[in-house]
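Response to reviewer comment R2.3. The reviewers asked that we include at least one raw input/output pair. We reproduce the pair for Tol-Pal system protein TolQ here without editing.
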Amino acid sequence: MEQVALAAPGGDISLIDLFMQAGWVVKLVMIGLILASVWTWAIIIEKSLSFRRMRAALDRFEDNFWSGQSLEELYRTLSDRRNSGMAAIFVSAMREWKKSFERGARSAAPLQSRIDKSMDLALAREMEGLESRLGFLATIGSAAPFIGLFGTVVGIMTSFQAIAASKQTSLAVVAPGIAEALLATAIGLVAAIPAVMAYNKLSGDANKLGGRMEGFADEFSAILSRQIDERSAANRSAPQAAA
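Raw output as returned:
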């Protein structure tokens, strides 16, 4: 293994000095953990902003949906847009509704099943977007401490080999080598702690947003079910009135 140069006793050693004195394996571990930490923070910031935009979009859609305008008017407003959240679920259901009646659908049960299926698929796509990249946070949160520990073990082994070769065992000589090895564990913890905390927070936020969208899908399904029943009843009564 590569030998680590023992620092001269008595001098102050910065974190950069510890990094530069580390062996190439420990350096690779540190660099990898630093890059993972940077990517972790990028995901945290991006998902936090994305969830904030999603909450605002859900609030706006709910205000429009319950404002009293007709479903057809709201559908015409949203159909040409790139929608997300409840709007995407609404447009998906209304598109299936309109296609079915344009084709002369008469049976209520298959139509209701198709509408529910289209909303389930739209909800699944929205949840996939909300939960994207959260798995990386979970992976870093669980793996980074062990990766840092691996770097520490390799660094300590290399440091002990250098100590044995130099035949110097004073604390002033041993301490720098141990410190640079422990730096890998410290960087692993710095990467892991924010990742775990952010994963728990963002996962909870994603579940809350998903719950809101699922609740809307169920409520909208009930609204369409009533309208389907009303149309079916009107279609049945029309031939009787004609007779």
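Confidence is low (pLDDT under 50) at residues 1-10. The chain has one domain: 15-233. Further pairs are available on request from the corresponding author.
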